[in-house]
Amino acid sequence: MSQVKTNKKFKWALDFNQKNRTTTTELPSPPGYSASANASYTESSKDTDSNLLLIKKLWDVALGPLKQVPMNLFIMYMAGNSISIFPIMMVGMLIVRPVKALFATSSTFKMVEGTQATGQKFVYFIGNIVNILLALYKCQSMGLLPTHSSDWLAFEEPQTRVEHIGGGMSLI
Amino acid sequence: MRSQIIALLTILGVLNYAACIDYDGWVNIKIEHSLNCGRDKYCSRGNISLKSIRAGSTSLIEQIPFTRQHIAELQNIAEVNGFYTIRTIVTTADNSEGTEFFSSVKADAFIEKGLADIINVWVLPNGAVIAVSFQVTNTTQPLNKDAKSHQVYSNFFLRYVELAPIPDTASYVQKLEREREAREKGDVKDNRSFLAKYWMYIVPIAIFVMISGATNPEPAGAAGGR
Amino acid sequence: MGLLSIHIKPNFLGLLKCLNKLNWFIVFFSLINLSVCIYEDQIGKFDWRQTYVGRIKFSQFDTVSTAKKIIVATEENVLAALNLKTGQVVWRHVFESASTGNIQLLHVTEKVVTVTGSNPYLVRGWDSSTGVLLWEWSLTLQNEEQADFSEFWVQNNMLVHMLPVFGSHVEVSMYNLLTGQNRGATSKLPATWTNDGCVLSAPYYTCISGGVGSQQLLSLDVTSNAVQLLSRPISEYVNVNTYDGGLRPLDSNNVIPAFTLDDRKIVLIKNNQFEILKTEVVDPSASVALVDTANGQVVVQAWIDENEGFTVRAHAAGSGAEVPELRMSELGLRAGAVELAAATCSRPRDLLVCRLLVTGDDDSLHLMQQGGRILWSREEALANVVAVEFVELPVSDLDAAIESEFDQKEAAKMYSSIWAAFTRRLQTQFQQLQTLIQGLQKADGEPDEAPPALVRDYFGLHKIIVLVTDVGKIFGMDNLSGALLWQYYEPSLDTENVLVFTRRTARYPPHTAYVTIVGKHEESGNGLIISINPITGELIGEKLMHLDVQLLQCALLHRPDNDKLYALILLDKDENVQILPGSAAPLVENMYMYVAEKNTARVQGYALMYDGKALSAVRTWLVHLGGGSPARIVVSARKPAAERVHSPGRVLPDRSVLYKYVNPNLVLFVTEGPDPLHKDVVVATCVDAVSGAVIASQVHRRARALPLAVHTEHYLAYLYYNDKHRRTEIATLELYEGASRWLAAGAAFSSHAGRRAPGVERQAYILAATPAAAATTVTEKSLTDKHVILALASGALVEIPWGYLEARRGGLAEDGSVVAAQPAPPELMLGADASLNYNRSLARPARIHAAPAGLESTSLVLATGLDLFYTRVAPSKTFDLLKDDFDYYLITIVLAALILATYSTKYFASRKILKMAWK
To answer: Which residue spans traverse the membrane (chain A) (predicted)?
Structure first.
């Protein structure tokens, strides 16, 4: 990634000092200087270090939804099962946020192009799904999901009849 | 010709309902139908005798088996989608003349279900019978058409007319009493959820926290990342 | 939480305030929604009441007091004052409906005096202008048996009571009118010549006595001190050979004693002498009255002439010359026979002005003036309505055209080409445009006086009520205004057990609506069928049909024939079946009938069979609901025939469904019979009318049944009087299939297949009132809640939600938690706000009828009795209708303003963006 960046940055630049640099490396090292330490540092800071950081950060993002689960559980517990404005708002948030996040997955991981991108995406996806499931469970326990036969009662066909009757008290 | 089938049957009458029977006595139910009767309009199909209405646990049903003629006549009725009508005459100790009842089942259904029926007899608390009705059972027991004679499988149920409830003043007064006591003690249980109870305190705090969080926008995500 | 912080920036104290305010608003609005009663400005908006008094028994003009009135006493035991100009009731007193309320005498001077009851009698004085009771005393007779023949009249401020003992003597007592003090004891006048054909023409008691051919006309002034018997042979007045004993007092007479002989001669008693008038009775059916005018007495006769209609002739009593001013005839008034109830004549400016109060056989009351002009009419038959049917109105011509255009069959027939369809479309559009323009013109101009056309309105709230009255008069009434649209009088119709069927609604435009009334012939008891177009009142179809056999029962076939007409099935006494029209016989299939005998509690069921040639009824079942004992059926209740329940179950608190047992063939019978142990027992039995199976039954001990029961969907309720606790109770039953359904949704229910017994929930409640009628609200699809409407003897029409009567208790608490079945309040609370008729009390309510409106939420209710009261109820509130006071202007303005604001801001925003881009 850093290479790409530098390439981009110096697309139109011409490096005349390249040769000079190689010559300067031939100078003896100052006292207390460790070439090996320098080598390892340059390696990590230039390439791996920033990459690792990014990956770490991205894992953070990917694990974010899962980390929210305990918090969500707590909110759900606090909200109670009664249907009033605040619990409804909370449940609404619980369900809307992960859905939104799912739709925004690609934009969130736009900058990622690496070996772990699929894994991160997957974890992110799973985390959001878990959140949605939790929210659905909350809806269910609040009775907001049409899962009972009573919820579909209004759409049932009314009963018809085979026999028909007439009559009443004797007219005589 | 007339063989006797003795069927011992269970009676639906639950004991506590039987308690509302004021009167006990015997009941005899004569079952007649109009199949293979020759010249008469109705001839006997059988007889049910009950020793006691209250006990009602055992009853004796004697019914003639249906011969080929019976079946043939029944089939004739079934062809025109007609009714197989049964006349019953109920005699009790009080009513020696007998009361006449009629009931019908669809002839085709009766054949189809292998001559199995349910007899419901409804009895008033004073021991009088108000209705004897026959219905075809739901068992799928096809009729063996080759057999010489067919037994009629009857299930007999004695049903008691229940005593209607009366307005429940006593328990309501008790309930009011309980409520009053509870109020005096002051332990009215509030089983609402924590948030439902205290949201008016939580919300301002939450809002306050949020607002204070919003005023110094520290990039929490960046700080955590570094 | 993030969402909240975005929308609500600082100042959370303000937010809290706002929330608090909102809270109060919520409380406030919920209170408004809770109140069921109407607002003050809605009085009479959805309802109307009409007050009636019943058939006139006595009437007199009150000419003394300043506000001119007619005081009437009626067969319904009502004393009332009618406004002379309008005929409206000024005041009214409704006495007891039993014989204790019978009005024996009405005497009007400055005060109104009535004698009511039958031993003991109550003598009351009323203020004629206000109807306030002034005095009252009671009069008890020792002689019980003869008391029925008592005669009362007022003479010289004394109440005279005369009690004839036929063939022996006449007892006469006089009492002080105000105090009841007996002036002198009872005097017994020997009168061996009296018989039950005698007439009183106060103060003369007149009889015809003696053997055939030698009858004597005898008359006695029973109040005079000296007993002086007038006696003349009858041959002096009439031909003895043709005389059949006809002796009638005059219909309206307060001048001098007079009577008619043999419906031919008019005899006066003047100066203790019989005096025969020169004027003869013109028509044997004529009603004769003697009226005092300035030029002496005038004999007024009124009758219905076959050609001329209602005819009045008047002759001077002295000379016998006709009084031409009083000659009148009115072709429009056709009321069977008429009777002159009262007459008064005055003479302002040398002109004889008479007012005649005429009652007809059809209980109508007309006030006639000079020249036969009817000042007003009252249809008192409506005080005794026996059957009611709500009938839909036809759609307007324009709508009918549109409907037929889009009718598949019609369309296929008419529009073979696309051009035909196109021209038709244009035509209809043009018509629509025309009506629109007409409507606009009307709105601009003065409001037209013509009544609204009889076409169906958008919500189906406008209907016609067909009312069948006890006397045999049938009315068509507009339900919105209560105006009578048409009337039809059939004197030979006996309306006991009369049935009304709507055989075709007005929904099928080329065919007219069709209502059939099945009654009995007055004399023979044979079936009498009247078929009427309920919109116009014309006889149609079978018209007036006399059957030659007594009917046992009749029913409507469940499916219509090609003319959309539902056939009428008649089951006669000999168990033969007829069908009208006969061509519908092949349509009979799966049709059953039941007949309940009231006095033996025997119920029989019949299956109707069509064998390709004729219809026959086969008796399939018979039950004795009283057992062997002599019980009688007090009431039977069946579901409305067209009821189709669109809510198959009841949702329980745990969100499972308890499925209703909706057996369309279920009939509730409530019987009452003696019991050796428990005095009277009431047995309620639910019988499947197809199979004859008893579905549920329960018994009340020591109770008496009331003829009030309701039955819809899966629930039943009936009222009975608990003898033990001396209170009225209401028993409710609910039938349930259970947690799973027996048949698939939409499957057909068959009584022959069902052998499972439903679960029965029972309950009983105390009703702290005397109910007089009961009904449930009916809506189009049975989706809306049901309310039970009770008419109380106190005059209130009370609406009770079924929730209060539920047999199955327990439900959802406010926070959604499940509440166990708790002991319900055992007494039904009938709050004043549950009264549908607010302060308009109904006298003697007898029946309640409910009919569905086109709106699912609304049910139309008519209560009959002495008064008629119509209203509409919305058991689940008007969820499909905007509020009555909905502000259309405000919402339009707000909408327009919002749209305007949207576009203007859009414009300004784009301009701003443009400006910013240039910066």
So the answer is: 74-96, 122-139
Indicate if C840 and C703 belong to the same structural domain.
yes
**CA angle, corner C358, sides to C355 and C364, nearest 5?**
135
- Which chain A residues contact residue C689 at CB under 8 A? 165, 167
CA distance C891 to C895: 6
Q: What is the pLDDT of residue C821?
A: 53
What ipTM was reported for this prediction?
0.79
On whether the CB atoms of residues C219 and C274 are closer than 8 A, the answer is yes
Tell me how far apart the alpha carbons of residues C780 and C782 are, in angstroms, rounded to a whole number: 6
Is there a single domain that holds both residue B73 and residue B129? yes
- For residue C627, give how far its alpha carbon lies from the nearest alpha carbon of chain B (Å): 4
Q: Are A95 and A132 contacting, i.e. CB atoms less than 8 angstroms apart?
A: yes
CA-wise closest residue to C182 among C174, C192, C194: C174
Residues B146 and B38 placed together within one structural domain of the fold: yes
For chain C, which chains pass the contact test of at least 3 CB pairs under 8 Å?
A: A, B
The one-letter amino acid code at B51 reads K
Q: Are strands C287-293 and C252-253 parallel, antiparallel or unpaired?
A: parallel
Tell me, yes or no, whether B224 lies in a domain: no
In a domain, C789, yes or no: yes
Report the distance separating Cα C755 and Cα C769, nearest Å. Answer: 40
Neighbour count for residue C901 (Cβ, 10 Å): 10
Query: Chain A neighbours among C 531-550 (CB < 8 Å)?
Result: 550
Residues of chain A whose beta carbon is less than 8 angstroms from a beta carbon of chain C are 81-83, 89, 93, 143, 148-151, 153-154, 156-172
- Give chain B positions within 8 Å (CB) of C815: 192, 196
A79 interface with B at CB cutoff 8 Å: yes
Q: Which domain holds residue C17?
A: 2-33+883-918
pLDDT interval class at C534 (50, 70, 90): very high
Task: Name residue C201's beta-bridge partners.
Answer: C204
Residue B148 lies in a domain: yes
Q: Which helix (H) or strand (E) holds C182?
A: none
**What's the confidence (pLDDT) of residue C21?**
53
Instruction: Look at B225 and A57 and tell me if their CB atoms are within 8 Å.
Output: yes
The total number of structural domains in chain B stands at 2
One domain, residues C808 and C894:
no
- Chain A residues in contact with B195 (beta carbon < 8 A): 78-80, 86-87
- Alpha helix (H) residue ranges in C59-105: none
What SS3 class is residue C880? coil
How many Å separate Cα C835 from the centre of its chain? 19
Per-residue pLDDT tens digits for C143-153: 777 777 888 88
Q: Which of C116, C775, C117 is nearest to C125 (CA)?
A: C116
Place C817 in a pLDDT band, splitting at 50, 70 and 90. very low
Q: What angle do CA C665, C666, C670 make, to 5 degrees?
A: 145
* A residues 132-151 closer than 8 Å to B (CB): none
Give the global pTM: 0.81
- Domain residues for the domain of B70 are 2-160
Going from the C-alpha of C381 to that of each of C75, C384, C566, the distances in angstroms are 11, 6, 29
- C169, C146 contact by CB (below 8 A): no
> Across B5-14, B98-107, B149-158, C168-177, which has the greatest mean pLDDT?
B98-107
Which residues share a beta bridge with C338? C360
Q: For the segment C480-512, what is each residue's pLDDT rounded down to a tens digit?
A: 989 999 999 998 999 888 999 999 988 887 788
Same domain for B110 and B191?
A: no
C801: which DSSP letter? E
Which tokens hold the place of C409? 């069959």
Polymer length of chain A: 172
Query: Are residue C836 and residue C772 in the same domain, yes or no?
Result: yes
- My answer on whether B64 and B149 are in the same domain is yes
